[in-house]
UniProtKB/TrEMBL annotation:
Keywords: Carbohydrate metabolism, Glycosidase, Hydrolase, Polysaccharide degradation, Signal. The keyword RNA-binding does not apply. The lineage of its organism: Eukaryota, Fungi, Dikarya, Ascomycota, Pezizomycotina. Belongs to the glycosyl hydrolase 12 (cellulase H) family. GO terms for biological process: polysaccharide catabolic process. GO terms for molecular function: cellulase activity. This is Uncharacterized protein.
Length: 169
């Protein structure tokens, strides 16, 4: 039995048949026509989730979260890496990385990361920042760690991806 595709499925079929650079332009035009934020977000999620972030600093933005494919130390070895967004929701960001690095055994190759945009406040006004993390490694022969970075700045309007001071845990 043939079932009629939903509007999201239909639009994705149409978008997938277009030249890739036009997909986002068409999506923006469609977004203004239908004026439905949830539908727009669904389009963006479905299109972006299928595309891995493999270039230096490729970043996915959604719902106040970012996932970044930061390969800042790639010159210390040979290889590649792609970051894949699995899910973004009000509860957080879920993502994974596939990599293949060799050489520079004790040098950092990359720092793929996710972040959340918090309301800007003075440090004295923050009593807690509830956080949770879960991680898995499918290779036991790696040298890896996890860091939690907090950026602060004297100017409350400073960008949030860097700061005058950084606290790394």
């Amino acid at each position: 039995m043939f079932s009629r595709p939903s509007i999201v499925e239909y639009c994705l079929i149409v978008l997938n048949q277009m030249i890739p650079p036009l997909r986002h332009i068409t999506l923006i035009g469609l977004a203004f026509q239908i004026n439905n934020h949830q539908l727009i977000q669904t389009f963006l999620d479905k299109i972006t989730f299928r595309k891995p972030n493999c270039a230096q600093y490729d970043t996915y933005f959604s719902r106040g979260y970012t996932v970044n494919n930061n390969m800042w130390g790639k010159v210390s070895g040979t290889g590649s890496q792609c970051t894949y967004v699995d899910k973004i929701s009000g509860d957080g960001a879920s993502w994974h990385v596939k990599w293949n690095w060799s050489g520079g055994d004790y040098s950092v190759k990359s720092y793929p990361n996710s972040g959340v945009e918090l309301q800007k406040k003075h440090a004295k006004d923050i009593s807690s920042i509830p956080t949770s993390t879960k991680r898995n490694y499918d290779n036991t022969n790696i040298n890896a760690d996890v860091a939690y970075d907090l950026f602060t700045a004297a100017n409350i309007n400073h960008v949030t991806y860097s700061g005058d001071y950084v606290l790394m845990i």
